[in-house]
Design brief:
single chain; alpha+beta; twelve-stranded mixed β-sheet; five-stranded mixed β-sheet
Length: about 450
Amino acid sequence: MPTHTATAPRLAPKANALGGRLCNPALWGLVLAAIGSAAAADQPDPVELIRRSAEVVEQAESVSVTVDAATTLVRDEQTNTDRSSYVIHTAPDERFEFYSATPEGQPAKSGVRVAGNGRVMLVHAVAARRHTLSPGEGGLAALISSPVSSAVGSGLGGMVLAPLAPTTADALIESLTASEYLGREEVDGRPAHHARYTVADELSFDAWFAAEGEPVVLRIQPDVASTPDVRAMAGHHKTFQYRLVFDFNNWNLSAGLSAGDIAAREPSDSLLTGSLFAPPKEGPHPLLGKDAPAFTLTTPAGERVDLGERFGEGVVLLEFWATNCPICVQAMPKLEELHQRYADRGLEYFAINAGEAPGDVAAFLESRGLTARVLLDEQTQAADAYDVSSIPLIVLVGPDGHVQAVQAGFAPGDEVKLADSVEALLAGEDLATQTLRAHRRSEAEEAAQRERLQAALDG
């Protein structure tokens, strides 16, 4: 069998000389470094894409960009689509504005407008004619970190807008548990780097960044369909699709806005409020610190109990409840345990049923094996006197006969806080006075904060 011998070709003198130079270890290291740099430029680090996008926005003197959010929800034969737009402007001295926009890019007559001047951030719910003030240090990052961003894109605005400011970009990067570069594509005809990220092992999102010019973010698409809540929703339909896409359009990194072009001023036709996203904080219960209303009520067995005789001796725990209130029923064994723990020290516990027939209450207690001492308030006179607007309402009456503590609702662990309150009352503390003083201090601090923020507004 013939054999084949590989023979190295003879090199021309110049080629031989070049080969000799390339065999030089130092020179060969430079060549490999150059090749590596070219590969890195062609395949950037996906995490650095987020960071670089934020740096570009921060370093620009004035920026303008439109964020277009598109939602598509398909459930069997029904398809719902929604589109919303938001315009963001930045200017020197940490000034920025953010507003809901019409398709033409003009401020919408509904939605929100946010303006910050580096000291204070004003959020205006335009149609509702309400606005709030909050500290605005950090410029655009103050907006992205605030609850306002949750109003963008089904609560994902904080994540979506994060690549616009270094502080929020770093926070997003810190939460990432995976990142992957997927290659170059085009977004609306513009070359882009495509990357995929996972946040806290829970939510994945794809992002595209400009591959030519400054690497600003161009599109973000969260994979909301893979989240547990949406998967559970999808299980009820034969055909299901839920798609969110955020496009960053009309980038202008030289918008030319000066600090004077963006003003944070209170709207003349708007009411300053504490929060646009949470219900107003409730003040102390109107009976706190006052004499507890006394009533004579009966048990399901017909025994009459005069609460007035109980008030002014030990501590009395009242729970207003009903059989159709699961939380009330869950609380009763915990409250009965609390009663048994402190009964020999003077604690009494009465579960006051509001508005139900004696027979129904008795049957319910027997079926559930509940042992709390129940009083019947068939005409809800006691509930009305205690200003019961929701149940369960738990009231502690102190040895002085005054309402010392009032709690609406009941959650696991609340029995520990109630035990602490009982201990304090048995030790002679005046919890009502402490609560009312703390409330007045809080109101004074909030008023002073409002004044400081209003003083930081423009004009």
